[in-house]
Write a structure and sequence with these properties.
This protein is α+β, with helices and mostly antiparallel strands and 314 residues long. It contains eleven helices and four strands. The protein starts with 13 loop residues before the first helix and ends in a 5-residue tail after the last helix. This is Cell division protein FtsX.
Length: 314
């Protein structure tokens, strides 16, 4: 029992000590980042550009995929019926095709609807009014459900079919180019991500060299490798987090600069396409990935340094 008026300090738990050490490393590493603004800005800037380049390519490919036309429209099969096919038969044929398992949707466009659309888009209203008869046939716009090879052959063999239009080759080539671009984006992401990791590692290595004597004293006093490594790991994580945020800012600035001319270009093609940016989930993923890259670079460098400078037992 203690004397009255005295307070006995209870020893802190292991968890409390561990949290205190992490909090100290967290704050001290942030202080080291802020104390060297120019060196920090240079490191973060290089990392941000390395992260923004593959992200920008991936975002451009995603927008290109939307600009090329939606997926359903690129898969449509246009079936032009023979001129002598009556409207009732065309409607019945559309109903029959809707019952097929490999057909997702069928749209019937009558000759009158086709002529009205052509009148609206071509600007040849007076010339069309001079025609005695409507020369346009009935049109079935068929959207396949999955693989459309067998369906194309079936539609071509219909007795009512006069002509079939299907851009399968173009669609396959476009899909191939987009697939190649996506693979290229991943390759660049790995290369530039490795470059960002090396940048962080080199920056942390220079910081370790400047504190070499301090680290040596801590090792002689029996400090664990985890205690010595922790501030540098947080330093690398700070570099990665801020670089990821800057990369997102660069992409947002680029999107803002391109949005207006791209909207004017798409309007000239009669499209309402608008440039889309990264979603909130993707942005969070970028920040998390950049932080992990910074953490990993610092962890590798400090681990290598500690293995080389660990005091030898005598």
């Amino acid at each position: 029992m203690s004397e009255q008026g005295n307070v006995i300090a209870r020893p802190r738990s292991g968890l409390g000590i561990w949290l205190d050490q992490h909090l100290y490393s967290f704050v001290s590493s942030l202080g080291r980042v802020l104390r060297r603004p120019w060196a920090t800005l240079l490191t973060i800037g290089v990392m941000a550009v390395a992260l923004a380049l593959p992200l920008g390519l991936w975002l451009a490919l995603d927008n290109l995929q939307h600009f090329a036309g939606n997926v359903e429209q690129s898969r449509e099969i246009d079936v032009f019926l023979k001129p002598d096919v009556a409207a009732a038969r065309a409607s019945a044929l559309a109903t029959e095709l809707r019952g097929r398992a490999d057909v997702a949707q069928v749209e019937l466009r009558t000759p009158e609807q086709g002529l009205e659309e052509f009148r609206r888009t071509s600007g040849l209203g007076e010339a069309l009014d001079a025609l005695d008869d409507n020369p346009l046939p009935s049109l079935l716009i068929v959207t396949p459900r999955n693989d459309d090879t067998q369906l194309v052959n079936a539609l071509r063999s219909l007795p009512e079919t006069d002509q079939l239009q299907h851009d399968a080759v173009w669609r396959q080539r476009l899909a191939g180019w987009l697939g190649f671009g996506e693979r290229l984006a991943w390759v660049l992401a790995v290369l530039f991500g490795t470059g960002a990791l090396l940048v962080v590692g080199n920056t942390v290595r220079l910081d370790i060299q400047s504190r070499r004597e301090e680290i040596g004293v801590l090792q002689l006093l029996g400090a664990s490798d985890g205690f010595i490594r922790r501030p540098f790991i947080y330093l690398g994580a700070w570099y990665g987090l801020v670089a990821g945020a800057l990369a997102l800012g660069l992409l947002s600035a680029a999107a803002t600069a391109l949005r207006e001319p791209l909207a004017a270009l798409s309007a000239s093609y009669g499209s309402g396409f608008a440039l889309s940016g990264l979603t909130a989930q993707t942005a969070v993923g970028v920040l998390l990935g950049a932080t992990i890259i910074g953490w990993l670079g610092a962890w590798l460098v400090t681990g290598h340094f500690l293995r080389q400078t660990r005091p030898t037992e005598t």
